[in-house]
Design goal:
The structure is a homotetramer. By secondary structure, chain A is an alpha+beta fold. Helix content of chain A is about 30%, strand content about 40%. Chain A has a six-stranded antiparallel sheet. Chains in contact: A-B, A-C, A-D, B-C, B-D, C-D.
């Protein structure tokens, strides 16, 4: 049995179990999401839901949440969705439209869904809402799969 | 002399001096940019240059700079460029394309330039390079001017 | 009774009837959509479905449908969706991602839905599929409402 | 000498000559650009300039040039720029921002420049101006190189 077989042997066959394992491994190494207080609510193949509370140090000069943190939340949800099949996948580009401002202490939820996956590239939509369900931002990410596994099943 | 005249009286006529005054006022209130270690290198009417050093807490699960921080740097440069005429201006949408990864300790420079300004809306391009001049990301922001002055000249 | 009252009197109160009336008026004047063979399948407030058959003169140097025609189809569906409330509304910007090529004689369907409408600005998503249901392109449009009515009810 | 060597033998070494040869070959097959009256003004490695006159059949219901034709012009310039090294390259996604309307008989010029080219993917900016030099639209295209040559040198 070679190394690759050994890796395969320790990874779950079930896509949902694999998505959860890959996400846990990824989150443990994702210093940025942790530092921003971003939490993973749920993950499934091609989908992820994450939350973030707007902190005082996330406010810009207009006293609303700096667009970079809204983007970061969306980008994290996108990353967890597109790596959920345990294939290392990176962002090639993203766009975001801001619909309403977010304020200090707002609890934001980002829901990422896979719209398309063909060959190495995918398209993901992420919607951010606040605690009242108000739409705050809409994001579209383009992903590109590179070599490697998110987790080999034993880290 | 009414209040408005008083405000006008304390603001510089020179566009460059006004850009510097507005930026200083904005930066002082921009907790987010400060917390990210983003510094304003230069500003002029419609333009801004900002820098950021990639810290360990900005790395994602792939050990490269989380896209959200690249976006934040670009978004800050965009914000300072589009508020440089002292008219409160917000982002309506942005797109970013990632060209090369950034790593811990990289020193990134974002240069924002105004491509178009007509009525209330503007288009700004931001280029991010690293300390070797390598292109890391390219960003385009759409701005929307709302009511109010960035600084009344005495805060 | 002034002119404005007269106009109001001839326009339907029912949003669906108004959407149909506005669309008919708009389509009659839309030389471009007509010349491209774009047809309006259905319209309702904030939504529109349009179809287009890929012709030989729509092929690029790679013998697939030129991206400009995919964009045109999406852009038309977007325009009919965002003008469906009879308020003149224009595009401020759009993005499109190409998922699969379209070939000569393909029958493409573009479905536009309103994601957000706040103040003068809106966000619309348009999905293009071919006759087999395959996803060909995904488009996002940003709209801006200007002055005027699409139809005064008697043209 | 195998077929591949034969092909290489008939293609010019000079990048500028190769860009011109590839563009000519591509334009001859580009029914769409021809039908739109789009003309190639100049091409060089990574760059292309194309023009188009706005015709009556390009007007939308607001009597301005349908966004799809502005997009088509930009998309053609982008395509010629990114195929100028004779490697078959397609668009993966594009965004466009509309700055000012174009009217019937306006002569539009699209200038495409390569911002980045790394591995198989590139980023191109296209600016559209009218006959007075007014900025009409700004476009960003993402390219993806696939297999094949634009011209084998003898078609």
């Amino acid at each position: 049995m070679d190394t690759n077989d050994a890796v395969q042997a320790t990874l779950p066959d079930d896509p949902q179990a694999l998505a959860e394992l890959a996400s846990q491994s990824m989150y443990d190494k994702d210093t940025a999401s942790q530092a921003l207080g971003i939490k993973l609510t749920s993950v499934s193949p091609g989908e992820a839901v994450m939350t973030m509370t707007v902190r005082a140090d996330m406010l810009n000069g207009h006293k609303t949440c700096h667009g970079g943190f809204l983007f970061s939340l969306a980008d994290s949800a996108f990353a967890f969705a597109c790596n959920s099949r345990n294939q290392v996948t990176v962002a090639s580009g993203c766009s975001i439209d801001f619909l309403a401002p977010a304020f200090e202490d707002d609890v934001l939820t980002a829901t990422a869904t896979e719209y398309s996956l063909a060959g190495r590239t995918g398209i993901y939509d992420v919607h951010i809402t606040n605690q009242t369900g108000k739409r705050v931002a809409v994001f579209r990410g383009r992903s590109y799969r590179i070599k490697g596994l998110v987790t080999a099943g034993h880290d």
